[in-house]
Amino acid sequence: MVARALLLLAAAITLFPGHSSMLEPRIADHAHAFDFWLGDWKLTWRDSGVATNRIVREMDDRVIAEHFHDPQANYRGSSWSVYDSLSDRWHQTWVDTHGNYFALSGAWKGDRMVLETSPTDHDGLRFYRMVFRDIEWDGFWWEWSVTEDKGASWTLKWRIRYARM
């Protein structure tokens, strides 16, 4: 009886997606989609905005942690991003010193990484979106936009230039 239970447990560990080595190649292919973001960055926006952002892998390299700091505004924010092989999407949680919380998900769309929130209002019209674009090793543009019409049109709220330090 114990031997049969151990055999079933071994089979379950092998077959369930959370523990399956069969998924490792697929995870490896997509789990590095955010590697361009890793490192220490100087951020600039408009005429006077300056901040730093440190992006590192944590938790056995499965989670990407972001640590944003704007000393002029005394503002900090952090995010944790993880690739979900079942949905083939990235998921990110953001929190900051203003008490903001955003849950985003997304994937590559052409040459851009795009993550969006679920609706943030009762009518289901307002969404937020972040776009990483014009990605090069030494820098890229990051944009934060909002839609009030389910994505028919987007209003840019914040555009940041990332430059590798």
CATH superfamily label of the largest domain: Calycin beta-barrel core domain
On the 0-100 scale, what is the average pLDDT? 85
Strand elements, count: 10
| Straight-line N-to-C gap | 60 Å
Q: How much beta, percentage-wise?
A: over 45%
Assembly status: single chain
Provide the domain count: 2
Task: Report on this structure.
This protein has 165 residues and is mostly beta strands. The chain has two domains: 1-30; 34-164, Calycin beta-barrel core domain (Lipocalin, Beta Barrel). 13% of the residues lie in helices and 53% in strands. The protein has two helices and ten strands. It has a ten-stranded antiparallel barrel with strand order 1-2-3-4-5-6-7-8-9-10. A hairpin with a 4-residue loop joins strand 4 (75-84) and strand 5. The longest helix has 14 residues, at 2-15. The model is unreliable at 5-27 (pLDDT under 50).
Task: Provide the descriptors you would attach to this structure in a database record.
single chain, 165 residues, mainly beta, Lipocalin, 10-stranded antiparallel β-barrel, 2 helices, 10 strands, globular
Quick rundown:
With 165 residues, the chain is mainly β. The chain is built from two helices and ten strands, in the order ααββββββββββ.
